[in-house]
């Protein structure tokens, strides 16, 4: 079978990585690239840098990767859907829910694979965690807490920390919990003089009762990417920056010191750090997209899921605007 002919639009900070990964993915050929701003990272190689999505489509594509700024997601994706091109759009799916719904509906109506680039689902630590939770190793899941903190990334210009970073946590929390959000409450802050928020704290509840907490900002002088899932049997801790997963098991040895036993609630047990096969998440993501197009498996993040995540993101922003009031979904 011939390789999929893939086009890439957007050659910026994310697009340059997608160009490399598409070239490295078996069964895919990068045949065209486009960016009206040019190729500042020099990733086009022998390919001509085309000016827009229409020029990209004329190259004759089976699939496309959209890595343009969020405000251009809808018009770019709709053009590709109309042309019959399977497409993955970098997160979030669009600038707002209404735009996202139009995009998702266009791909569904055309019978095309539409995917959203939530790469955290392809992180080795989170993949292993979810597999072990599904196998019952944690028992009932009680709470999911995430921290996503770092300095401000110069690549961001059109959205705040909620739509850029917290959207990852919203998607992964729903994915790990196996449930949609029921309600959220949030507070944001604007500490760096930019138009958009640069800090957010979120608390929420899933429809299946799992509690959620997210701490996200662009004002921390180190990179912190941590997901903690607490349940009946203990807690999984994933360091997604390094792809490490550790399990802190509840102890089975009774504590004879009554004051400590009453304070701790559960006892400390074995700590296991798992040895994982650490593949680059972006490569796994691209393979999932390829396999969805080929009908092999459906492990990609669908556009319907992308819209649901955007609904939660907008609820977070609405709650923050309303002083942290609870917003139901």
TrEMBL record:
It comes from Boudabousia tangfeifanii. Pfam families: GFO_IDH_MocA, GFO_IDH_MocA_C3. Residues 127-236 form the GFO/IDH/MocA-like oxidoreductase domain. This is Dehydrogenase. Signal peptide: none annotated. GO terms for molecular function: nucleotide binding. InterPro entries: Gfo/Idh/MocA-like_OxRdtase_N (IPR000683), Gfo/Idh/MocA_Oxidoreductases (IPR051450), GFO_IDH_MocA-like_dom (IPR055170), NAD(P)-bd_dom_sf (IPR036291). Residues 4-118 form the Gfo/Idh/MocA-like oxidoreductase N-terminal domain. It comes from the Bacteria.
């Amino acid at each position: 079978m011939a390789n999929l002919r893939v086009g890439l639009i957007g050659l910026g900070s994310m697009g340059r990585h997608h160009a490399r990964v598409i070239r490295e993915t078996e069964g895919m050929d990068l045949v065209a690239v486009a960016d009206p701003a040019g190729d500042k990272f020099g990733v086009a190689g022998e390919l001509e840098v085309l000016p827009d999505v229409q020029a990209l489509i004329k190259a004759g594509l089976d699939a496309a990767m959209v890595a343009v700024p969020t405000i251009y997601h809808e018009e770019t994706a709709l053009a590709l859907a109309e042309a019959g091109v399977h497409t993955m759009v970098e997160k979030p799916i669009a600038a707002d829910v209404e735009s996202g719904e139009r995009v998702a509906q266009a791909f569904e109506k055309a019978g095309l694979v539409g995917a959203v680039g939530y790469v955290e689902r392809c992180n080795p630590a989170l993949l292993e965690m979810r597999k072990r939770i599904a196998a019952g190793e944690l028992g009932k899941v009680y709470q999911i807490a995430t921290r996503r903190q770092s300095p401000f990334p110069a690549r961001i210009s059109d959205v705040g920390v909620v739509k850029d970073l917290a959207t990852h946590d919203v998607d992964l929390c729903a994915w790990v919990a196996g449930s949609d959000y029921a309600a959220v409450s949030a507070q944001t802050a604007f500490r760096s003089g930019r138009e958009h928020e640069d800090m957010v704290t979120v608390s929420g509840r899933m429809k299946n009762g799992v509690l959620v907490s997210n701490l996200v900002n662009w004002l921390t002088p180190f990179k912190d990417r941590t997901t903690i899932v607490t349940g009946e049997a203990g807690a999984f801790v994933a360091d997604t920056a390094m792809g490490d997963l550790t399990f802190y098991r509840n102890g089975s040895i009774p504590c004879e010191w009554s004051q400590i036993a009453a304070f701790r609630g559960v006892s400390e047990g074995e700590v296991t750090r798992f040895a994982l096969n650490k593949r680059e998440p972006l490569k796994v993501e691209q393979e999932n997209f390829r396999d969805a197009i080929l009908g092999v498996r459906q492990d990609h993040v669908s556009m319907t899921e992308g819209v649901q995540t955007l609904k939660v993101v907008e609820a977070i922003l609405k709650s923050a605007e309303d002083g942290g009031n609870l917003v139901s979904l």
